[in-house]
Design a protein that fits this description.
heterodimer, A: alpha+beta, five-stranded antiparallel β-sheet, three-stranded antiparallel β-sheet, B: mainly alpha, 54% helix, globular
Chain lengths: 185, 82
């Protein structure tokens, strides 16, 4: 099984950060890269999305790691993320107004989708719908079981179809005007 | 420093990061910053940094990771200032 994590960042929602934000979330070498990048904001949020995507994978592998962004070190070419000696594959896509990162364990590259929302009031539902459409399983549902002690209080998303779990690892994310998903390739 | 005083200051820090201010109306020590106030992880980093600045403390990564509720933040501050 290839484990997958993804994260989308709406670049229009990233203004007004604390002055020490980059210092807090980046490893020292990453902070230097951001500072000298032609587009520092894009560089920073590419790193941030990569770290968030990688966190989701590492949390699935267990035990739940401390969610400290700086401990997830991203390759300069954005092709991998390292966390405490474990390396994950990485793909980062920059589109019109967003950055989307997908991280995964060894195996085929995951498939993924990003969509701009017309209605931002229910992004969680929109992300689920995007995933169901993407994997091509009409009638499937996406569930997240409450898990006290997990980072956001829920287990990773799981696809269900006809009352049974689908053996396909998936990931969902949303931020601002964008929803995204990724699943095993 | 009293708990109610710190909680008031924490709510003041949270306010700019919560889009739905109505969610702050019934805030309590048990209110989840992520689930109830719908603060995302990037904004949570900003909040931790604001807490460091406001209270003159240093919040480690491990301590920051333990902050899930308003009460967690208040307790963290009180322990750091003790």
């Amino acid at each position: 099984v290839t484990l997958v994590g993804d994260d989308v960042v709406d670049l229009g929602e990233c203004q007004g950060r604390h002055p020490r934000f980059a210092e807090r979330v980046c490893a020292p070498a990453e902070a230097e890269r951001v500072a000298r990048a032609p587009e520092p904001e894009l560089a920073l949020w590419s790193l941030f999305a990569a770290k968030e995507a990688a966190y989701k994978v590492v949390a699935k592998l267990g035990p739940r790691p401390v969610f400290a962004h700086a401990r997830f070190v991203v390759a300069e070419d954005l092709s991998w993320v390292e966390h405490e000696g474990r390396y994950l594959e990485l793909r980062v896509e920059a589109g019109d107004g967003f950055v989307h990162a997908v991280a995964w364990t060894d195996g085929p590259a995951p498939r993924s989708r990003v969509e701009r929302l017309a209605d931002v009031s229910t992004p969680g539902l929109a992300a689920r719908a995007l995933l169901v459409k993407g994997v091509g399983l009409p009638g499937a549902t996406v569930e997240r079981v409450p898990v006290p002690g997990s980072w956001d209080g829920f287990a990773p998303p799981r696809l269900w179809k006809d009352g049974a779990p689908v053996e396909l690892d998936v990931s969902l994310s949303h931020h601002g005007r964008f929803v995204a998903c990724a699943w095993e390739g | 420093m009293e708990q109610t005083q710190v909680m008031g200051q924490v709510v003041g820090i949270l306010k700019p990061f919560v889009k739905n201010e109505g969610a702050l109306a019934g805030v309590s020590m048990e209110t989840s910053i992520l689930k109830d106030l719908k603060v995302n992880s990037a904004r949570l980093v900003d909040i931790v940094l604001e807490i460091e600045d406001k209270f003159g403390i240093s919040v480690s990564d491990d301590a920051a990771d333990s902050v899930k509720t308003v009460g967690d933040a208040v307790t963290l501050i009180l322990k750091s200032k003790a």
